[in-house]
Design goal:
Blueprint (H helix, E strand, L loop, with lengths): L2 E11 L4 E10 L2 E6 L9 E4 L4 E4 L1 E6 L12 H10 L2 E6 L10 H11 L5 E6 L13 H7 L3 E2 L9 H14 L3 E3 L4 H4 L4 E2 L2 H6 L3 E2 L1 H17 L6 E3 L5 H12 L4 E5 L1 H5 L21 H13 L4 E2 L27 H10 L6 H16 L14 E11 L18 E11 L2 E5 L6
Parallel strand pairs: 1-4, 1-5, 6-7, 7-8, 8-9, 10-13, 11-12, 13-14, 14-15
Antiparallel strand pairs: 1-2, 2-3, 5-16, 16-17, 17-18
Helix pairs in contact: 2-3, 4-7, 7-8
């Protein structure tokens, strides 16, 4: 039995409105005591967490593990190593693998691989077979096998009719739909945002309208969907999509949404370096969009910060004009978000943890994202004051296409605990 006692930590848990110094005891994978002056059992590992923050582990709703089929980029083990180094204790694995995660067998194979990994993996199963947008998967069988959500992420669901049918089935199964919102007739051929950088580089751009039309379609379908349908919008990057989501929420519809740190920190000018590590889909947008996304995550119109962690090899990313889209982000997501949002005074630490832990757990309907006694001991220990420079060569996944490479970030993950066991310790141990 693993026993860990954290002493004198700043305990931060938005689910309990908790932000105070105290102790926390983990035994046999669960949080068993929370309070002051807890005595250590004889077998306990005692961690002096003075001046450090102890919080629920982060939950990343949007990760590409590339396993099976593309394991030269990432696999379950390496992806979960990266997750642990970023304080992520639960991640949702998208289905655009080879073969696609569209069968009960594929779901079970992923769960089997994840049993010994350093993060909990929740399979996101495909909405349509092979992501081809032609025929729905057996959604009931996928949930019974262990799928926690549905998505065709990487591509949008091809037709409104199929998405409407998927929403009806997902509502009956009480399982969320994660929507990649894009009209590909508008985005076809584009590699960066259709703006000033595309004009300067002389390339085809992806207009904001491609995302906005996709977002509008899914929200319109939600408005006609059966009660119980939960729509989650992935990687929101435009001001209009953010406003559509805000308006749908105001009308009482069950929609949530995520964005990624790069969308509220960088804008389209970043790609003028012709570095493919700044290319992703949706792309970095205008300064106005960046500011709107920043404000939407501060206000809560956008609920969650995810990463869309998308590993690619160095060789693939070496040619800016022909490289695949996607960037990695699990190891930098918290620190980048802290630097932009908390260090600037726009969010409290508790509010940021809510967006990265408690709210994702609520969307998935899982027992996580909390420090409540009896809950799983999935924890992250943080040093708010430590600054660090992102060196891609020191990251823990297979790929190095880090969007925040060479950035100086504030706040550092010092330790990650999964089911009461330490799965990551920072090499610089100041505790």
């Amino acid at each position: 039995m693993s026993v860990i006692l954290f002493k004198n930590a700043r305990l931060v848990d938005p689910t309990q409105n908790l932000d105070s110094v105290g102790d926390l005891l983990c035994e046999d994978g669960k949080i068993t005591k929370l309070g002051q002056n807890i005595e250590a059992p004889n077998e306990a590992k005692v961690v002096d967490a003075t001046h450090l923050v102890l919080a629920p582990g982060f939950i990343d709703l949007h990760v590409h593990l590339r396993d099976p089929g593309f394991t030269q980029k990432e696999d379950v083990e390496s992806g979960c190593n990266a997750a642990a180094a970023g304080g992520v204790t639960t991640l949702c694995a998208m289905p655009n693998t080879a073969p696609t995660c569209d069968s009960p067998e594929a779901v079970q194979e992923l769960l089997e691989k994840a049993k010994s990994a350093k993060a909990h993996v929740i399979p996101v199963a495909a909405i349509t077979k092979g992501l081809r947008g032609e025929e729905l998967t057996d959604m009931k069988a996928l949930v019974e096998a262990g799928a926690g959500a549905f998505s065709d992420d990487g591509v949008p669901v091809a037709t409104a009719r199929l998405m409407a049918d998927a929403m009806e089935q997902a509502a009956a199964l009480n399982t969320p739909i994660f929507a990649h919102t894009e009209d590909r007739t508008l985005s076809k051929g584009g590699i960066i945002h259709d703006g000033i950088s595309a004009k300067e580089l002389g390339v085809i751009g992806i207009p904001s309208s491609a995302e906005d039309v996709g977002t509008a379609r899914e929200i319109a379908l939600l408005m006609s969907a059966p009660k119980g349908c939960h729509l989650h919008i992935c990687h929101t990057s435009t001001k209009i999509s953010a406003s559509l989501i805000r308006d749908a929420k105001a009308k009482g519809y069950a929609v949530t949404a995520e964005t990624c740190p790069h969308y509220f920190i960088f804008d389209e000018t970043k790609v003028l370096t012709e570095d493919a590590d700044y290319r992703m889909n949706p792309p970095l947008r205008t300064k106005e969009d960046k500011e709107a996304i920043f404000n939407a995550i501060v206000s809560g119109d956008l609920d969650v910060i995810a990463t869309d962690h998308a590993p690619h090899t160095v060789e693939e990313k070496s040619d800016f004009y022909h490289a695949p889209n996607g960037v990695i982000g699990m190891e930098t997501s918290f620190s980048a978000s802290y630097t932009a949002l908390v260090a600037s005074g726009k969010l409290t630490l508790s509010e940021l943890i809510y967006r990265m832990s408690a709210k994702p757990a609520e969307i998935l309907g899982i027992d996580a994202g909390t420090l409540k006694v009896g809950s799983p001991a999935d924890l992250v220990l943080l040093d708010e004051n430590e600054t660090w420079v992102v060196d891609p060569e020191k990251l823990h996944g297979k790929s190095k296409n880090a969007v925040f490479k060479n950035c100086t970030l504030q706040s550092k993950v010092k330790m990650t605990v999964l089911d009461g066991k330490i799965v990551f310790e920072d090499e610089r141990k100041d505790f």
